[in-house]
Write a structure and sequence with these properties.
Layout lengths: L3 E4 L2 E4 L10 H5 L2 E3 L2 E6 L4 E5 L1 H15 L7 H15 L5 E9 L13 E9 L10 E5 L20 H13 L4 E5 L5 E4 L3 E6 L2 E4 L10 H14 L3 E3 L4 H6 L2 E6 L3 E8 L2 E2 L7 H14 L10 E3 L8
Parallel strand pairs: 8-9, 8-15, 12-13
Antiparallel strand pairs: 1-2, 1-7, 3-6, 4-5, 4-6, 5-17, 6-7, 9-10, 11-12, 11-14, 14-15, 15-16
The structure holds 4'-deoxy-4'-aminopyridoxal-5'-phosphate.
The site of 4'-deoxy-4'-aminopyridoxal-5'-phosphate has 14 residues, from helix 5 and strand 14.
């Protein structure tokens, strides 16, 4: 079965989904996207899309920011996504990329008087960061952009150049990931992940006001920490120096899952290995993500249920 895409309101083989070089979004970054995972559960022969509704809820909010109107509701987007993954026939973990974009073949910087388009593709996706050993981070020399530059709560494609600058600088300097600071010097987030610290037994993460993308994995971790471990997450400003004295640190994201951070700016985090709370949350998260914990059924969309095709 070829991988399919959803493009111009129909399912087509991925190789046939092409856009014009005149497309507005290509020139000006006028698109917004999501990254959604569907995780294979071998025991049940089922692929579970994780928190599909929440991703589309965020996409539609971002569309509002970017003046994009889509002819689909959250329910319809979830249904189209399920169909796309089903059609492509995957029996392994996959990553789904919806993109809402200014599709007019027109030049000129603006977001009004343009047509809107929507596409989706699905692909296999290997490990993004090392979740088993942990990663080494540095503080980026690139500051996180402010809400009044391009809202960082959005996944507007143009703003991701800020993240790409930070990621490439970090990797070229021998680190795995960057930690960006806000223009006020507070800790914000990684290039594609939110950040959590354990400081004196407290679970801490930068608040939404510190230019973070309000992550769905961040929300999942906060809920699991509270419901399963009785640990409240404290949202507050985090100073750079707290990164150096934290007992534990981890990053969260759809691609990154829960990735332990074992070194920051060449200083060990805690003892330089994966912390106790990080390990506990990782275990909980991996079970929940692939549909093993039925307490969280409302977060799962089964792809093959009822089709007889699993
Ligand atoms: N921050 C940024 C900048 C991101 O791109 C992502 C990935 N979407 C995240 C945080 C994590 O968000 P989520 O958990 O919703 O994937």
């Amino acid at each position: 079965m070829p991988p399919y895409a959803f493009f111009q309101n129909e399912f087509v083989p991925l190789s046939e989904a092409k856009i014009s070089i005149m497309t507005h979004a290509l020139h000006y970054g006028t698109a917004c996207f999501e990254g959604i995972r569907a995780n294979w559960n071998a025991d049940e022969n089922e692929l579970y899309i994780f928190r599909c509704r929440e991703h589309y809820d965020r996409l539609l909010k971002n569309c509002k920011l970017l003046n994009v109107s889509l002819p689909y509701s959250v329910d319809q987007l979830c249904q189209l996504t399920t169909e796309l993954v089903q059609k492509s026939g995957y029996h392994e973990d996959v990553y789904i990329r919806p993109l809402a974009y200014k599709s007019s073949e027109a030049l000129g910087v603006r977001i009004h008087d343009l047509e809107d388009g929507f596409l989706m593709l699905v692909t296999t996706f290997g490990p993004y960061l090392d979740v088993s050993k942990g990663i080494k981070c540095c503080i980026s020399s690139w500051r996180r952009i402010d809400d009044n530059v391009i809202p960082p709560r959005s996944k507007i494609t143009g703003l991701y150049v800020n993240n790409a600058f930070a990621k490439t600088e970090a990797m070229e300097n021998g680190f795995d990931e960057a930690i960006m600071l806000t223009s006020n010097g507070y800790v914000s987030e990684g290039s594609g992940e939110n950040i959590f610290l354990v400081i004196d037994g407290e679970l801490v993460t930068p608040g939404c006001y510190d230019s973070v993308l309000v992550g769905i994995t961040r929300d999942t971790v906060m809920e699991l920490a509270k419901k399963e471990l009785g640990t409240e997450t404290i949202e507050r400003h985090v100073s750079r120096s707290e990164l150096y004295i934290a007992d534990e640190c981890f990053m969260t994201g759809t691609a990154a899952h829960i990735t332990p951070v074992v070194e920051i700016d060449r200083r060990k985090v805690g003892q330089g290995n994966i912390g106790r709370l990080t390990k506990e949350l990782q275990k909980l998260y991996f079970d929940v993500e692939c549909g093993k914990n039925k307490k969280y059924l409302h977060w799962y969309t089964p792809v093959y249920a009822g089709t007889g095709k699993s």
